[in-house]
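User: Some background: our group keeps a shared notebook of sequences we're curious about, and every so often someone picks one and asks for a predicted structure to add to the entry. Today it's my turn. The entry only has the sequence so far, pasted here. Could you supply the structure so I can complete it?
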Amino acid sequence: MDNQESLRHESISKLLIKYSVPAILAMMVTSLYNTVDRAFIGSIDGVGALAISGLGITMPIFTIIVGFGVLISVGGSTNISIKLGEQDKENAEKVLGNTLMLAIIISLIVMIIGILFIDKILYLFGASEHTISYARDYIGVIFLGTPFNLIAFSLNNAIRAEGNPKLAAKTMIVGCILNVILDPIFIFVFDLGIKGAAIATVLCQIIISMWVLSYFLRRKSSLELKKSNLKLDFKIVKVIIAVGLAPFLMEMANGLIHVISNTSLKVYGGDFAIGAMTCVTSIYLLFMMPVFGLSQGMQTIIAYNYGAKQYDRSKKALILAIITAIFILTTGFILIKIFPEFFIGIFNKDEALIDLAKKGININLFAMPIVSIAIIGPVYFQSIGKVKQSMFLTLLRQFIILVPLILTLPRILGLDGVWISQPIADIMAVIIVSIFLIKEFKSQAK
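Assistant: Of course. Here's the predicted structure to add to the notebook entry:
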């Protein structure tokens, strides 16, 4: 049974394992990379606390770069899966070519704007005279690597969409392991500090982009990357953007949240509060990465089966993914509650920063066990091509609800208001997403 036949006929539980486990492993390795990367930066002798705070300043920028990668890769890969489900290989190849060209064009624009206005952007995003040099050293190198980042991101998702999740995971895992190896070499051996961490990241992005590009150019894929398909087709670009817009806007919302959060943290807690939030976010991502892997794995299954008009299989994939994600996040929540100092200590040893992070983590991660519903639910609508619902639900948690909360509550509760905004938004989003999913399933049953 080939990959496309298995998507149509194999049991959903087996498919979810087949497509999600490689993605989860890749995400876990990515999480390990992020953990090690930030741990190394936080341990730089004499400046670790300020360096981790400087890294926190760059998080909105990194999120924006990732957002453009998500726009192209999710839009492209979802449409590739749908076209393959419809047995339309020719148009799947056209989507692939346009996906690559969009990645090149958009990444060059982001790189140029970022380099030209780097200091203005960093101060706007919460940098101070104490943290700007660390933030500039890191993000300046990351901007230079943007084209390789977006090419790797976009084509890797296309590899998964065509039915080769193991290779998609392998490229990510190898890149992340290499990054972990290179980090201490560039940071400590070459004495490049936080800039060394960025150089290690970009070198890995270059290697992965060349790897995934060669996969298509050497025709190892079932899809051919044709020169004629690199010419942008407005209709194809439109459907790529239409499907990718919701997760893109979610990433932009996340970036905005980081900016607003950094500003509030700076006002009510100073530079160390930004560092503490960076630690909390890093710990949160340790356990969220498997959920993102699940959503990636289920996306291909849902999109293909929906394209093949097998709606019950799409629904089952969603439900299994949500149940698995709740189990993962509940386990993570318990571990964090029992061993908060252990997790925070991974990223920094400064006592003042640890005390801030301990208080923050108890409040900020309160709704962690159930948040997967608010994250995975919108991906279902995205996968079946319902753009309006997907866009609204994607923006709901991190923008429509959270932004007003984070602008209001800190004025009443001070620093605690920053910490508590996220769990309130999570709970409200879970309720609303659940209502939308129930209504969708009822409409399909008619």
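Suggested note for the entry: The chain has one domain: 17-445. The chain has 17 helices and no strands.
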